[in-house]
Amino acid sequence: MTAPALVLLFALLPAGPARAADAPSGPAYDANAAPLDAFSRDLLSTGGYALRADGKVWDDVADAPIARDAMPDLLTRLAGARRLKALIQLDQIFNRYDSERNLSDDDRQAVRALARDAWPVFSFSTRRDYRSYFTPQELETLDKVPVYAPPGLPDMTDPAVSITADAAPAASTGPLVSITAAPPATSTVSAASVSAATPATSTSTPVSITAAPPVSVAASTSSAVVPAAVGLAAAGAGAAAGAVA
Q: What one-character DSSP code corresponds to residue 67?
């Protein structure tokens, strides 16, 4: 890693833990009422904080205890600083070699120590990069270490007071009133009286209407018959006139 890159990485490191003067005001954190895990205590001690007998986590710089609601943010910053510091130191070792396979025994042991110390704050993807530096037996132990997550405020409050469900409403001391739903009324109407009426049958005689057959008139016949009939009628009239005379 080049010098400018190192300067940039160190600049990204937290300028310092959240000091009590800058932390949210409130009751001091009490480690006796809400004990911290071993790794959280180690982060505090290496970060310049003292755990006192009365349970207060004391900041010597601000000369004041850490507030209870400021503890999660403080532990998050301390964990991030340890992770970034370890990654920078590891990168400095690797940059001295052309290949990771050429590491000296001393530098290999240094990589192991740095990775083991920062293992709780390494993500799962970062852990995969350093698994090859440990034996299967060592990995079996390291794999049981969870990724560190600072305890939240609900985990740091004073011992909770047992809260039970509201008591059931007191039973009435008056006489019990029995309310029975009335059975549905049963209809006594017989089936015959509600049978559907038979539609009336018509007694009138149906009228049959038959269409008259169409009259067929042939054009050739009518043209010949009409003149003949006229001629016969004229002859008959003439004979009748002669007989009268």
A: B
Burial category of 162 from C-beta neighbours within 10 Å (exposed 0-12, middle 13-18, buried 19 and up): exposed
Per-residue pLDDT of the chain (245 residues; tens, 9 = 90+): 444 444 444 444 444 444 544 444 689 999 999 999 999 999 999 999 999 999 999 998 889 999 999 999 999 999 999 999 999 999 999 999 999 999 999 999 999 999 999 999 999 999 999 999 999 999 999 999 999 998 775 555 444 444 444 444 444 444 444 444 555 554 444 443 334 444 444 444 444 444 445 444 333 334 433 344 434 344 444 444 344 33
| Whether pTM exceeds 0.85 | no
CA pseudo-torsion sign 101, 104, 108, 114: negative
Alpha carbons within 13 A on the beta-carbon side of 18: 18
Cα separation of 231 and 228, whole Å? 5
Taken as a whole, the chain contains a residue count of 245
47 phi, psi to nearest 5 deg: -90, 0
